Amino acid sequence: MLVAAAVCPCPPLLVPDVAGGAASEMEPARAACYDALGVLAAARPDRLYVLGPAEQSGRGPHPQGTRGSFAGFGVPLEVSLGKGDPARRELPPSLAVGAWLLERTDWTGSPVEGLGIGEPLAGPRCQETGRELAASADRVALLVMGDGSNCRTLKAPGYFDDRAAAFDSEAARVLGAADVEGILALDEELAYDLKAAGRSSWQTLAGAGEGAGLAGRLLYDEAPYGVGYIVASWS
């Protein structure tokens, strides 16, 4: 059963070494992520899953000990998803950011496993995957990585779309309220149009949260680079 969850954004810019001189701009988001991970640790789960969007090569399970790298972003920084033997696969960027957050918060709790999820994965499939994760142990926690829309401003990576702010506002509301039905109702096509990389991960969380009766708290909701970044905790 799901006992806790943390929702965090997954831009590599969350990592100060990658952000460089702009690291301070992400400090409020970073601090909110640390608070959300504190909720996970306090829940003392039997198993922690780190979920995040992934391209084809990074989809599927990533066992404990899988390594990730930020070399593709110009920084010779490596991370590990918990302690364990390295796997042949490499973590996709979203899970590498999640692994970095766990290292920064000195996660020493339960075993950790990663799961890369395709952004186009249909809502019902996400929901079913979440149910399976929640049923995998008595006390399950999720670290859910994913961004909102990519189109909040003219300088945003996806350019400006006047639907983006409303989409992000609704996503922040339902994630902050642990509103399972509301998360499942997020428009898949609109999320795809707005390049919202978190939709599939969020709906997987919703599947895991069915019947858990968790309360949510919204910790951060901003778009510093024209991309919607949301941090929430469930417990």
Automatic annotation (TrEMBL):
<protein>
    <submittedName>
        <fullName>Class III extradiol dioxygenase subunit B-like domain-containing protein</fullName>
    </submittedName>
</protein>
